[in-house]
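Quick question, first post here. What does this chain look like in 3D?
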Amino acid sequence: MGKTYRTADFDYEYPPDTVAQHPLPDRSASRLLVLDRASDTVHHRRFAEFPTLLDSGDVLVLNTSRVIPARLKGVRENGREAEVLLVHPEPDGQWLAMVHPGGKLKAGRTIRFGDDAIAHVVSVLQGGLRRLAFSGTVDVPTLMRRYGSVPLPPYIARPVVPSDRERYQTIYANADGSVAAPTAGLHFTAALLDRISKRGIEIVETMLHVGPGTFKPIETDDPARHTMHAEWYSVSEASARRVNTAKAQGHRVWAVGTTVARTLETVAMEDTVRAGSGWTDLFIYPPYRFRIVDALLTNFHLPRSTLLMLVAAFAGYERAMAAYRDAIRERYRLFSYGDAMAIT
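> Answer (accepted):
Ran it through. Tokens below.
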């Protein structure tokens, strides 16, 4: 089974000024730390060089989920402000959401958005979630367009600006539903993807709608006791076939981001994947044996996070934490709008 780890093992310190508050003007200008597991070496490169890491026949698997303007600001019955973070719709038309101030918004309370809509708190659920029902003259997508903003992570300590709607989004996003960007994909440009295709690498699409659980800290000392928020995924027959062909021919499957890694491992059947869709709460932490993913592209993640634990499971705990220390010494830009890391 290998060594087991505690949550505290995934803690580390970083200078606050290394947290990227804005994206770079050029998406592909980010730095790229390359961790080679075979040689146990680290190389410092630029993301524009990423295509050179790929071999003809490899597949590059993307998450095409699109971030929605899910953060809504309204007012409570007493006229004071309230905030809603929509998570996902329910089959009956209600929505799961997180709210602030949570202690004030119990079942039966309402939040008004101008003269257009009212959110009714139907029930209080575990994990800080609320079930909301909406009434008014507009539907929820219209409500988001009028009153919503991109839900930037809490460590980005600045107001949302109009350009975030485009930059906190991959260029290939096409399926509305995430409340956080699959950030490993933020570095790609159309020109870079074209270069990758011309090298004989097949680009494969999957989808996982990122939920607020991506920012949820692990509050238990034992990671195994942490509960993941379930997230909706989809893998098409064509995508599954392309991944399986690459595996059968001995080529590598590259996961662009932890969301893709979790999706592929969710649908894994030993060394193949099956098409399908549904909810996944798969939590990957050391020790874990990856069945599908051969290489991982990712950003740098918060201490004690489920995302860092996945990276450590893939790279090896000691390698991953040493690479993070190296990145901090080299003053890499951290987190969502920050630099990237490739693990081969």
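The first helix runs from residue 140 to 147.
Helices lie at 140-147, 164-167, 190-198, 237-248, 258-266, 306-315, 317-329.
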